[in-house]
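Field guide to reading this record: the first block holds the primary sequence, the second block holds the structure written as discrete tokens, and the final block holds curator observations. Each block starts with its own label. This record concerns Precorrin-4 C(11)-methyltransferase, catalogued under organism Chlorobaculum thiosulfatiphilum.

BLOCK 1 — SEQUENCE
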Amino acid sequence: MHERIAIIAITETGIALGHSLKSLLAADGFAGCGLFSSRAADGVESIESVAAFVRQSFGSFDAVVFIGSLGICVRSIAPVLQGKHSDPAVINCDESGRFVQSVLSGHAGGANALAGRLARLLGAQAVLSTSSDVQGLWPLDILGREEGWGVEFASPVAGESITTAMAAFVNHEPTTLLLDIRDSLTDQLERTAPPFVTMAYRYEEVDFSACRLLLAVTPRLIEAPVQTICYRPKVLCVGVGSERGIDPARFVRSITAELAAAGLSPRSIRGVGSVDFKLDEEAFVAFAQACGVALTGFSPEQLESAGPVPNPSDVVFRKTGVHSVSEASAALLSGENRWLVEKQKVALAGVPEGQPRHYTFAVSLLRGAERRGRIAIVGAGPGDPELVTVRGRRYLEQADLILYAGSLVPEKLTHCAGPGALVRSSASMPLEEQFDLMEQFYRQGKFVVRLHTGDPSIYGAIQEQMAFFDAEGFEYEIVPGVSSFQAAAAVLQSQFTVPEKVQTIILTRGSGRTPVPDKERLSELARARATMCIYLSAEWSDEVQAELLAHYPPETPVAVCYRLTWDDQQVWRGRLDELSALVRQSGKTRTVLLVVGEAIGARGGRSKLYDPSFTHGFREGHGA
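BLOCK 2 — STRUCTURE
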């Protein structure tokens, strides 16, 4: 957001801090940063005076950072201020770098966010004074800006504006948040809603008798009896087709009116698509430009492969080689064979018969945006509840159903479940029973978390579950987890890759009840002498040891790791030729990971990354 930043230093001490801040900003990705001062110094762009520089250049920067007294900052910018939507962000930092204060354009100009970022770079205290930030409330005027949401205000009362709506919000007046779609930000809004905000998921659910302000995240046009801020998420995908050469201006007016008649806001359009040989159609180009999106072309083969559409046309097929342009394009853009608006055929008003005037359009909702059931396959980590990922923990708190692998996942990991959530262990449940339970919750539009040990993609047995979800058309995602091999490295205080010695980690299992391919037998993998983490194999430790000794030296370090990071975790260390004896000594065969390799406990070697003579993308090497 801030591509051009001016740092204005008042004193010698300020110049020194300015140099440091400029370097930190450059390392943090801010390339267009300049340091200015009326004092001559190396690396400083000389200016006649601070006041003159601000007067001449204020509008040329996205952000201005003063290093010095707040009074100088205020007196310098006062004569050139225009308005909150045009003024750059202004920050003031004392010359000792203790406080970083947002002075101007805290929300619209991003000064609050930049002040926080500068404070983190300097180890300073950010000073923010806007009411929403002080109270920890949402900044309504810029909410969703980073996600590309549009913002619109409407009120049945004359004189009200988004400013009066923001005042009502920071004064805790009864507010309803209408979430008509779902994405990561709406999930965050649900989690962080203040007590005076009531949630609604359909317009019909809103109780306007107890609502002073409506915040609506929706692509749909609504007309509420209270002041309303509508946020327009980019979730509508529009497919278009037409006769060649229709009038661009009439087309844009017409399709915009058709979308409004369907109750949809053009500000929520994410993409416009058509068959690829229509990419030069001026009307389509004009419409995409008016929506601020790209025009996407699909080949006839792609359109035909989009799946069944509700309104195929043999006439269109004879002319173009495809049965559908608008519906198929909308489906391909959205990733979803569902339509908010099926194909509509429209004739442009005011165009005589015989001239190009017909077009079609269809609208789909972006895949995943509809508020319906969803499933997350979450990696629980190795056992310690604090090692589940932040997203995994958040999903556990939000879930309506938590189905966890009770034989492998500690029950206390589910203690963060929200009120009313159903928590079940799948240890004694056949797969079909698990499917029935998850399907029941999913079809009710609820959130299901399937909790697996470690990382679900490593010996997680999720393939058959995903096959079921795919067959039923269920939306799902996989949340990675910390695997037990990573926990082993932490518990063993080892780096499993050692410079110039071991650069490969092998995750595998021995051949027990379930055979492994011959090319993946331990005796074959042992040729690499990599760090090897062997799952599900303690029961066959004699065979494991024998196969590994085919290529690893007998003195190679090994570790037998039982229930890593659990409360009853145990680890036995030794040599490879003692592996089977260590397993017998442990008395454990389940939830055991065997680790083999010279990286265990190694402390020799030095990474090139920190070698002073090594040059890389962020540092020039010096010396031998």
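BLOCK 3 — OBSERVATIONS
The chain has a mean pLDDT of 91.
The first strand starts at residue 5 and ends at 9.
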